[in-house]
Request: fold
Amino acid sequence: MKSEYKSIFERVDDQFNIAYFCTSYQCEIGNGDRVAVRWIFPDLRVQNITFQQFEDASNQCANMLLALGISEGDPVFTFLPRSPELFYFSLGILKIKAIAGILFSNFGEEALLDRLGDSRARILLTTKGFLRKVKAIWNDLPALQKVIVVDLDEHESEAILSFRALMKDASDEFDIPKTEPETPSVIHYTSGSTGKPKGVLHIHKSILRQVDTFRNILSVEDGDVFWCTADPGWVTGVSYGIVAPMSQGITQIQYSGGLKAYVWFDILENEKVNVWYTAPTALRMLMLEDDELFQSYDLGKLKHIFSVGEPLNPSVIDWSRRVLNKDVYDTWFQTETGAIMIANKPGMEIRPGSMGKPYRVKAVILNENGEIQPDRRQGRLCLEPGWHSMFINYLNKVDVYKKKFASGYYDTGDIAYKDESGYFWFFGRGDDVINTSGHLVGPFEIESALLEIAEVIEAGVIGAPDEMLYEKVVAYIRLNPDITWSKAVELKLRLHVSNKLSSLATPQEFLIVDSVPKNKSGKIMRRLLKAWYTGEDVGDISTLEE
Reply:
């Protein structure tokens, strides 16, 4: 372990298991009775859960999984809303050195099938409400052996089991086996511009950088109350909503309701939150409220606000300074990086619109020939490999993984530039992935879903600039000649995409065209679609299909 991390953990003793530091270690050092998570439910009911309770419940889950035949390296997934059970189960997966995957609760059947099929998940934790989706695709998932249902009182069958019943039979004592730093830990799925979602595989050693950035970028101190608003289906929600705060004995807030300005600010004030980590989309939504709403709140305990997931608009920083009397510090990382890589932090000059500066990693801008670019010249943002939270593979896509490092650096796929002071500035994505509300959506999946509807002959999907969402999903569609565009047809398309993929993937706008432009090889020219939408120069169209 590098010397700069020695102050983070008093001892490691060759035990790198993430869940050990989140629960067992906390109990060993006297934090068992400390509140680990103050859980606020949608009805605003509050449940305080101590580190000892997390230790006991996750031990039960570990024993439960072993009894069901799960062993080291087996993928085990959750598909349920944010809840204490999701946390218990995920930590239990990590304790037995299986691989944890957390799926967004709004996924449709196709999205579930892609991820559960690719990972070959053996066990899935879900709810009675979501069981219908699972049953609809189960025949196409030969590796899926058992589904555990959190709100089922009794086992439904040999394959559909009750979480409550299994927990009653499971011991709350468990000795975590020695876990090497390179042991696989978590799978996050991220979409590409074409093809199926990619499974990003991380290792237990990632905890080192997650904690380092938690302390030194997010500036969380002992005794602070921390609130990360990210869903655990997203890498931020795992790295900074589970791993970092719990492994440091920090009390955190988890709120499983939706965004309502007065509720969020009640939480900030009443729970005396010291460090708040949220998304620009959320901040932009808060900006729509009357300034007077926020003036009635006492945010004296709130030391820092950080954002993540998409570029932070300068207008948000200006609003926060004016209305909240607080700076907002932008941070940047990806599913593949596992932790913050480039950031603004307290004590550093904020240059509104900038990503900030690299933290303990070498970041460069490369051109298409792999040459480092001078200041102010745009190119591909790349990182020198070797940081502790770096992903180790794309599941079942080794060639794609290797291609990411073809230049000797990790190619993030983002276009950016560096200024003379070492600040980095995001310009755009190098591929067609849509970043909507901080979530990456693949246009190919949306197009495929739209084409399943008889009324649609062709579909091309892009991300277009949006003040609220950063990018909104826009669908260009060619209708069947017998069909006339109507609100009924639009509703049918929206519901189909939402049910099959997720509400995040649902187009915000539909544009009817005579044909969707393609190049001579049949690939949709999304660049051209985006130029049409924004009114920009369409550029070279020599490969356009005639």
Remarks:
- Confidence is low (pLDDT under 50) at residues 1-7.
- The longest helix spans residues 51-67.
- The first strand starts at residue 35 and ends at 40.
- The two ends are 59 Å apart (CA to CA).
